[in-house]
Specification:
Elements (H helix, E strand, L loop, with lengths): L1 H22 L25 H12 L2 E6 L2 E7 L1 H10 L6 E2 L3 H7 L9 H17 L5 H19 L9 H16 L9 H17 L16 H32 L1 H14 L15 H14 L8 E2 L4 E3 L2 E3 L4 E5 L1 H4 L44 H16 E5 L12 E2 L3 E2 L5 E5 L2
Parallel strand pairs: 2-7
Antiparallel strand pairs: 1-2, 3-4, 4-7, 5-6, 8-11, 9-10
Amino acid sequence: VTALGLVLCISCLLLISVWRKSHGKGQLPPGPVPFPIVGNMLQLDFKDITKSFGSLAKSYGPVFTLYIGSEPVVVLYGYEAVKEALIDHGEEFAARGSLPIIDAVNKGLGIVFSSGEKWKQMRRFSLTTLKNLGMGKRNIEERVQEEAKFLVEEFKKANGQPYDPRFILECAPCNVICSVIFQKRFEYDDQKFLHLVELLQENNKILNSPWIQEKQNQETAFTMENLAQTVSDLFIAGSETTSITLRYGLLLLLKHPEIADKIREEIDHVIGQNRSPCMKDRRSMPYTDAVVHEIQRHLDLIPSNLPHAAKQDTQFRQYAIPKGTIIFTSLTSVLYDEKVFPNAQQFDPGHFLDESGNFKKSNYFMPFSIGKRVCVGEGLAPMELFLVFTTILQNFTLKPLIDPKDINITPIATGFVCVLPPYELCFLPSL
């Protein structure tokens, strides 16, 4: 009885501590009652965090609070709440939320997981440097076209036999970043290059382990350590994410061969077989453009976005968000909004086409996030996706090993980053 009483007393004290955190500096948004020590972690499915957030949003509305341990996390669900936070309150929520595994490695350096003045300086420096190296210019497009050709040559070596594209589709985007930062590409069997790809794969595994807590370190911006971490961030953000999107895109096209056929028709009509695709072609290829957008929407690569944090005490709607509170913005709730994307669970390029078959933009398309911390690579990734997909489909017919209706396109896990199921296909050369 005494032990039970002690446990109850400790539990009550912990609950009082949590209550004080919720009400000490103002009213946090509502949310489920947390358990002592673990908070709400037992109520979340970390393999499908999106589903958990959706269920909680139905109960508590588009702005709610969770506790990861004893730390409050504010979750924003739906376009209006996400836009209001990242655009209207962009400056107040521009800090980066903390991930302990990343903090242990990054030490608050680089541009992805840093905050404050240090982040502003490094982001400005990175954007200026990338622009000087050719980002957004014809120079980069030519490098992507070159890499797409090497990719095609690699696929041809399989001679139409079953082939797992994962490794090469990780090498190609990585090589594009290498060509920007180091001004050279590497052969796919170069040992240093292969080691770099392995490190990027390992990083993705780490990001899918349990996350949150710990404070940021504040250091000066321009050190060799910080510059090295910034380069590492550019590789992580610019290669692994594009690689996953390319793999998922091919999987979707295997599942929907009629869509691949329509893209091929557009390629034959606009480009033909005698030259490489270029970005100017995209204006004349609305269906292909819509497919590339729909691949990104349907993949929903980083469902809960990278965590933000309140850089100061902030009034958000009727709530008071204390400085340092971690903010999760559910990109899934925007990319899968049924009002804008009817039958959102279906892969349908029509989500980005108007009644006349012209490409249709949408404010709800935000796979790269929005606001002050929008992905640095938002200009490069769409170029890579368009050029690589069109180059592959210009040269090959994609043949699945099983009936398309039996192909499973569901990610293995949708925690921090989507994890895709492995698959093989045959690249049959076009006649």
